[in-house]
Amino acid sequence: MNRFINNIIQDKSIQRRIFILETLSNGQEFVSTTYIAKHLHCTIRTISKDIAQLKKELPQNWEIIGVTTKGYMLIKPVTDSTFPIINSYLTQSIIYEIMISIFNNKYHTLEKWSQLLYVNKQTLKNNLKMYAHILKESNIDFTFKNLDLIGDEINIRHYYCVFFYSIQKFTANSLLPIELRKKLLSIFHSYQISMDFEALCSVIFVSMNRLFNKHLIDKTICNVPIFNNDYIEFFNAIIILIEDYFKIKLNENEINSMKLLMYFVTKNTSEQKELTIKHLSESNPKIYESYLTLIDRLISNRADSVVRNKLMFNLALYLSKIYLYNQNQLSIGYIFEPLYNINSILLQDYYKNISLISHWNEVSCDGIFNKYEIEFIATHATIILNSIIRKHILFLFSGNNAVESVLHSKLKRGLGDNVRLYRELADDVEFDFIITNYQHKISTIPTIYISEVLNVKEILAIRNCVFNNSY
């Protein structure tokens, strides 16, 4: 469950039950209570109680079975989803109820809310104060007289775009009228735009609701994003459709706010990356030079110009997006999950990149980027670098041909796409490692020795060895 939804739910017990439900439904094997407890930072006894409660809430044809020495497993029809259960937890949340009501222009005092929700007034206020910390990431806050949101309209719209997009996956309900959705899909397919369609629907739904409820964009949007020609034509077609469907004429502020929110849900294309680099170098040479400094720091001791150019090209659009988030005081933390729970190979580079980007932020950017923005840049820099830096490994085997083929297949699958696995020496290749089951005579290349069993733990150890020495 992502951070945004967890903060809406608030109830720790329900958060744990959702995690357990998602963990048990991810595979057809037992999951130990020790693993769950360690991940959730609680006791095994607490997890046992949560599972007992969860069993009472499951559909009749679902079952959680437990084996003392193995853990728990969820048995359910493969055609059934956990989403309706999670949706029921979500819609019972105090924060959910209040945020939906505010969106629909229904405002109540704390006294009235405590009556409607059957909750103590002080408890309610405490819950709202806790949630206010999340809102403040995007410069929004509660006003408590008649409970409402205060802040710039673009910030409130951004919050609600994430809110409805996040909860949409748990329900089959459509945000937009079917007729409008069909017309949007037609435009979407005509232009073959790389964009999250459901996120686009969320932007339109929120923008129109806020507009018709007289919540208007009253400030100029900072640094309106630059689109390529395909996106400009697509965006103009969307605006024409919206104005025709709702019988309205959007002003410049409204159009620019939608353009900004739609830009955030576009997916990266080569043309858009080139346009971003060109625009950045021409319109803001100072930021561009700072960006090049960052690229040099990230590639560290690697003098490979190919790696440098690929990183510069691929990271530009992410930096452009995070800069727009920053300048418009919008929270990337609403939609971004840092790389906390991935394998150790990527994590080592990630933490190194966090350090480099934090230093660059202080020295070259006057510390403008916050914690989540730095993590966002570091995440994508790490992913890009891992995708373009390939290791060349020589696999030498002595023995049965069938065993050799099996081990080669295991290594190829286990080491991933960032490894090129060879079975013989090549004059034009500089090998990073040799993986072998016998004592060879090549002393110039680091060697990893394996057994003919080669289990999962051995492969993970090999990956750690290979990639931890990457740079």
Quick rundown:
With 471 residues, the protein is an alpha/beta fold. It is 60% helix and 7% strand. The chain is globular.
Outline the secondary-structure elements:
Layout: H1 3-9, H2 12-24, H3 33-40, H4 44-57, E1 63-67, E2 71-75, H5 83-91, H6 94-103, H7 110-117, H8 121-136, E3 141-143, E4 148-150, H9 153-168, H10 178-191, H11 197-212, H12 229-246, H13 252-264, H14 270-283, H15 285-299, H16 305-327, H17 344-364, H18 371-388, E5 391-396, H19 401-415, E6 419-422, E7 433-436, E8 447-449, H20 456-468
Parallel strand pairs: 5-6, 5-7, 7-8
Antiparallel strand pairs: 1-2, 3-4
Which sequence of strands runs across the widest sheet?
Answer: 6-5-7-8
Helix content: 55-70%
Radius of gyration: 26 Å
Low-confidence stretches: none
Q: Can you summarize the main beta sheet?
A: 4 strands, parallel
The secondary-structure class comes to alpha/beta
Distance between the termini: 33 Å
Morphology? globular
Let me know the number of strands.
8
